[in-house]
Design a protein that fits this description.
heterodimer, A: mainly alpha, MetI-like fold, 77% helix, 0% strand, B: alpha/beta, Rossmann fold, 21% strand, binds adenosine-5'-triphosphate, binds magnesium ion
């Protein structure tokens, strides 16, 4: 148990660390700055004047804050392919994640249920899962683009494939480790299979399944940025790549910040859901 | 006593895969309708296994169980089990745990009927006021009470109890024993209960089955409880024959006999407790 007042002190310490970080950042960008002499010539050429002009290359916190306010003032404008509001870009990414993730839940939870209840199926599918699981989701991208022939759907597929494994394994594990005595209670009550699944196995395994869902959403949000950098078009990943090409480091930093915030929100949402279905024995 | 047995165990044997010798073999005894039978035996002799077979949760490796004239094939609502570890579903409240059982027994019942029926049994085990609590919020004794209410609520013809009070402190155990005495006096359900508490067996049981130590355990003998009926926990130790019965049971537990009875189908039957009565013959 945290002592009373500990929370307040933790918040104060967090704020202090934030201030220190911002101060250090400001000092770093306004100080000596990147000296062109130490810079790799190719890199300097690529970056052009922006990097070689020292202090102005890396934006300071104040600059970022101003730009953030600007972007958030009108997050949903749409002026063609390469100029959309940050809200629209985040929205696209979230939409892809949600679609791929929902698909993964629809497939992995019932399948995990079957695997969890049948030792035979578990052993039969295990080699496939073991081989497929460690494959980087992005390695699927060319195959997805080739077969699906649509970059947006390919990104959704990549989200699906990266979310499906933690979900599948956690569901199977949760279902397989339902306490035997709970199943026995239901058996002595002659409960139907369906009612057993819904009223006993699912609630018993729910915390483990939710843990899998939380891991999956984290991975999906990690992967979407990379996937969108690859497929381009829309999304926060594409935004990052595009602003890099525009050498707008300020926007890149803002995108990084927003990716972190949205990822945290998704994680907290599932943590909350996990607490809802949790139980103590 | 001369009616057909409610439950007949006929040559039950259990051999767990990987074990060289069966846990028990040639288990024969009957439980008559309305009878309260306690099983006493050393740890590991297979008492839980035996009860699980009666519950239909486990398969015997040999022999059969006949319930009301029919061979037992699996679990059923005619038998309710009170588990040693109470086995409440932790995500359900007290009321929901009991309602889950009631709905399983009477799927057609309305919500109000289920509620009212459940409440009767919650009141019966003195849990009124705790209906909305989750098992984790209850004491050990309260959890066991919920388990009892859940078992009784489906109005089973047979009650199977696996050391239901062994995990409880003496005071709580005593209170629950009193409740079981009161309940079984009114319902007259056929009850089979495992216990390692000699006093508990003497208080509750009509007959006490003693099992030898495993592996390859048998029924060593069956003791008919000769103490007068209408026993209470407070009066138990003052009853005539109390010392004789208690000593007999304790001697059995201390001596750990591993020998086999000559005829496993008819283990020796002793009537102890009613000072002057001679041992009666096996009712079979
Ligand atoms: N699934 C199993 N596989 C193999 N052996 C088992 C299994 N379950 C129980 N046994 C063995 O069977 C024997 C009887 O177990 P059981 O739980 O029925 O004993 P018990 O009489 O209820 O003991 P206790 O008084 O300690 O509860 C034990 O020796 C145990 O090791
Ligand atoms: Mg046991």
């Amino acid at each position: 148990m945290p002592r009373p007042g500990q929370r307040a002190r933790a918040i104060a310490l967090s704020l202090l660390l934030l201030a220190l970080f911002l101060g250090a950042w400001q000092a770093a960008v306004s100080g000596g700055g990147g000296t062109a002499a130490q810079m790799d010539p190719d890199y300097a050429a690529l970056m052009g004047t922006a990097a070689t002009q020292g202090a102005s290359a890396m934006p300071g916190p104040a600059q970022v804050a101003t730009r953030l306010a600007e972007l958030l003032a009108d997050p949903f404008y749409d002026r063609g392919a390469n100029d959309k509001g940050i809200g629209i870009q985040l929205g696209w990414s979230l939409l892809r994640v949600m679609l791929g993730y929902a698909l993964a839940v629809l497939v992995a939870v019932p399948l995990g249920f079957l695997i969890g209840t049948s030792a035979l199926l578990r052993q039969a599918l295990d080699p496939f899962i073991q081989i497929l699981k460690p494959i980087s989701p992005l390695a699927w991208m060319p195959l997805a683009l080739y077969t699906i022939k649509d970059s947006g759907r390919s990104a959704i597929f990549v989200i699906f494939i990266c979310s499906v494994w933690p979900l599948l394994l956690n569901t199977a594990f949760g279902v397989a480790s339902v306490r035997r005595e709970w199943l026995n209670v239901a058996r002595t009550l002659e409960v139907s299979r369906w009612r057993m699944a819904w009223r006993v196995i699912l609630p018993a395994a729910a915390p483990t399944i939710l843990t899998g869902m939380r891991i999956s959403i984290g991975i999906a949000w990690l992967v979407i940025v990379a996937a969108e950098m690859l497929v381009g078009g829309t999304g926060i990943g594409y935004f990052v790549w595009n602003q890099w090409n525009n050498l707008s480091i300020t926007d890149v930093i803002i995108a990084i910040l927003l990716i972190g915030l949205v990822g945290m929100a998704l994680d907290q949402l599932l943590a909350w859901a996990g607490r809802r279905v949790g139980y103590s024995e | 006593m001369n009616t057909r047995p409610h439950i007949a165990l006929q040559g039950l044997r259990k051999l767990y895969p990987g074990n060289a010798r069966p846990t028990f073999d040639e288990i024969w005894f009957d439980i008559m309708p309305g009878e309260f039978v306690c099983l006493i035996g050393h740890s590991g002799c297979g008492k839980t296994t035996l009860l699980n077979i009666l519950a239909g949760l486990e398969q015997a490796s040999g022999g059969t169980v006949i319930v009301e004239g029919r061979e037992l094939t699996g679990p059923g609502l005619d038998r309710a089990v009170i588990f040693q570890s109470h086995a409440l579903l932790p995500w359900m409240s007290v009321r929901e745990n009991i309602a889950f059982a009631i709905r399983s027994r009477w799927p057609g019942w309305s919500r109000a009927e289920v509620e009212a029926h459940g409440q009767r049994y919650i009141d019966l085990v003195h849990l009124s006021g705790a209906e909305r609590k989750k098992p984790a919020q209850l004491s050990g004794g309260m959890k066991q009470r919920v388990g009892i209410a859940r078992a009784l609520a489906i109005q089973p013809r047979i009650l199977l109890m696996d050391e239901p009070f062994s995990a409880l402190d003496a005071l709580t155990r005593g209170a629950l024993q009193d409740e079981v005495v009161a309940i079984s006096a009114t319902t007259r359900q056929t009850t089979f209960m495992i216990t390692h508490d000699v006093d508990e067996a003497m208080l509750l049981a009509d007959r006490i089955v003693l099992m030898t130590s495993g592996p390859d355990a048998r029924v060593a003998e069956i003791v008919e409880n000769g103490l007068p009926r209408g026993r209470t926990r407070q009066e138990l130790h003052r009853l005539p024959g109390y010392a004789a019965l208690r000593n007999h049971l304790l001697d059995f537990l201390v001596e750990r006999p591993a020998g086999r009875p000559a005829d496993p189908r008819h283990p020796p039957l002793r009537r102890i407790g009613a000072a002057e009565h001679p041992a009666t013959a096996n009712p079979r």
